[in-house]
Design goal:
This protein has 295 residues and is α/β, with parallel strands linked by helices. The chain has helices at residues 10-21, 41-47, 62-74, 89-100, 117-120, 130-135, 137-143, 161-189, 196-202, 212-223, 239-249, 255-267, 273-286, and strands at residues 2-6, 25-29, 53-56, 80-83, 105-112, 123-127, 153-157. Helix 8 (161-189) crosses helix 12.
Length: 295
Amino acid sequence: MQLGLVGLGRMGFNMRERLRTAGHEVVGYDRNQDVSDVPSLAELAGKLTGPRIVWIMVPHGEPTRQTIEELAGVLAAGDLIIEGGNSRFTDDQDNAALLAEHGIKYVDVGVSGGVWGAKNGYGLMAGGDTADIERALPIFDALRPEGPREEGFAHAGPVGAGHYAKMVHNGIEYGLMQAYAEGFELLAASDVVTDVPATVKAWSRGTVVRSWLLDLLVRALEEDPDLERLRGYVSDSGEGRWTVEESVRNSVPAPVMTAALYARFASRQDDSPAMKAVAALRNQFGGHAVETNEG
């Protein structure tokens, strides 16, 4: 099957290689011409035989919107665009409406798998019309993990459902990562456990907390047992925030995901103003000792 792929960063580049290994013809475009197969989106469209399928893997927000607008000018009615980046689900309706003016179809896909997806396959959550999803199934089947399709791919619903599902997936991911991280810190802080990496590794098989994320923590501890080379600074790509916002909008309690998001905010503060206020209050009402910057 033939596919255009826009965006050859860490995810897109690996996806192109996995698709080619599966026997698909992929024409890739990236602003970095060192990895691009063609010099422009117009050239990409010209290399494909209609009706065409073009998959977008660029940063969410304005880069995605601009890419879709440019593709709308070089593709034709009956073509299909798959948006596989981490866009907010509310953007999908606007994207679909813009493309519909040109007769171009639209599918949104949440993609999970990170840099390991080239080898292990990607978990895929798609949103769009059934006919459009079925048209792209050979592509989805090549990208998903081996095994039953339903264990690595879902047609989650109409346009927007794929990115909504991925948003919630990432909110859960925040919570899982935070739980493992807190467990690691507690083990390291104790004077009872003397081999933290070995303890974490022992959870890898048979225990109820085993997972791929745990395997990755084991790998990180094998490379740096005390994680001394890292700063405790954690960014967020947006989906965790959107998940918490949706929990509020739908009146669904999500304390774990919310706390995990706030923990990331706290990680970026060298000296938390909020904790300064807590220290001041404890000193005021109870005379508790405080630490100052005066030496």
